[in-house]
Amino acid sequence: MLVSLYNTASRSKQEFVSLEPGKVRLYCCGPTVYNYAHIGNLRTYIFEDLLRRILEFNGYEVTHVMNVTDVGHMTTDEDAGDDKMEVAARRENRSPWEIARFYEEAFFHDTARLNILRPHITPRATEHVKEMIALIEKLEKGGLTYRTAEGIYFDTALFADYGKMARLNLTGQRTEREEVVADDSKRNPSDFMLWFLNKPTHIMQWTSPWGPGYPGWHIECSAMSMKYLEETFDIHCGGVDHIPVHHTNEIAQSEGATSRPFVRYWMHGEFLLMGKEKISKSKGGSINTLQSLIDAGFDPMAYRYFCLQAHYRTELNFSQEALAAATAGLRKIYSLSTENDSLAQNEEGFAAAKSKVLAVLNDDLGVPQAVGMLNFYNSLRLWLAFDSVLGLQIAEHVHREEEPIPAQVQALISERSAARAAKQWAEADRLRDLLISQGYEVADGPEGAAVRKKVI
Ligand code: AMP
Ligand code: ZN
């Protein structure tokens, strides 16, 4: 079926045509592993996961690459400030290498809990420095770089289409960026660092043709995406914050080096907001990581379902109330059964509903509309047909409910009924708490207690 995607480069929805029939080469900017991912970051990875799953549902074989940034991402996207990895190392009194491996593992633990499919290739920046150096040398040969005491810069004035995808107004951008320019020997404020030099206190260092130093953040993504997906590939994703600087610079470097188009479709996910503000990894206290959300009693799948209810190109406001509503909605889906499923036996109705849902999914990831339709049909069979796309683990949860209650749990239930009959309330409460701690829900009614495995 036809898939259309909104391409940031053309600012319009376009019919998706892959470079190679039946195959998609997809690159997503990965996490900077200096802290736990916040739930805003995770929203972007959910969006990218949905994109991949929808393409796969349509029969494409997707090669999904996502890098791990473990060096070179400065505290501003424009190269000013310190390397985030080194700041974290000082904060936690560990080496930047330890920081990188620790938060990388935490990241993949979070994405697994959200049922985000692991990208096929997850290259680390620190393991691709050789490729980055080769790319910088290519740019140097092409005359697109210059050297200052700070490092090797890309000269953006020499790349004709600089800022085209982002539609940057360079005059405006220049003044806007002036405040963060740390190096006044830069030729143009939008020039960016390819290789940092003369940073003796920076722990992560590599030798290079220009002297010891470390790579800039943008060159990482150009080098790794082109290594694994070739010089021109189908789709490149990230959050909207990457449009004006990071992706703009990736295009300049890649096309500057190869003289070929870099990416065919640019896709960007809008931000998750918390009380109208941007979420940051550094703000403590409130719910801003997946773990803090779990600690507050929420299920990761409820967060996924919450994200599914907003289109990836609209901002989404996070609140505990909204997450509680998503939990209730998901519980309703998990409690569906085949018994009163109007589409269970109706082949024609099922096929028609399925193609309607698929049509909205294929219209630039119309996930919220698809969820709305699925809720309207209220058919377990139909939800299950899209379980591999939405990733809500419906099959697992519905199945879990049908599992028989094990004998030792049954014994606790009987003991508790006996305690209640004997009006031993404290003992009955203790047994109820024991059942709950083993993952069961206990609802007392006139007919006695109903006990079932807790769904979420
Ligand atoms: P970082 O780890 O900072 O490099 O960011 C990882 C991803 O999260 C990038 O694709 C960002 O664009 C994205 N991102 C950052 N903040 C938010 C947010 N509040 N909502 C959604 N995505 C975000
Ligand atoms: Zn990137």
Radius of gyration: 26 Å
Largest sheet: 4 strands, parallel
Q: How many beta-strand segments? A: 15
Number of helices: 17
**What is the domain total for the residues?**
3
The H-level CATH homologous superfamily of the largest domain, spelled out, is HUPs
Whole-number mean pLDDT: 92
DSSP helix fraction: 40-55%
**What gap, in angstroms, lies between the N and C termini?**
35 Å
Alpha-beta content class:
alpha/beta
Shape: globular
At CATH level 2, the architecture of the largest domain is 3-Layer(aba) Sandwich
Structure description:
The chain has 456 residues and is an alpha/beta fold. The chain has three domains: 4-269, HUPs (Rossmann fold, 3-Layer(aba) Sandwich), CATH 3.40.50.620; 342-396, no CATH class; 407-453. The protein is built from 17 helices and 15 strands. Helix 6 (217-229) crosses helix 7, helix 9 (300-308) crosses helix 10 (320-334) and helix 16 runs antiparallel to helix 17. The longest helix has 19 residues, at 39-57. The protein is globular, with a radius of gyration of 26 Å. Bound molecules: adenosine monophosphate and zinc ion. Adenosine monophosphate is lined by residues 29, 31-32, 40-41, 43-44, 69, 238-239, 241-242, 269, 271-272, 278-279.
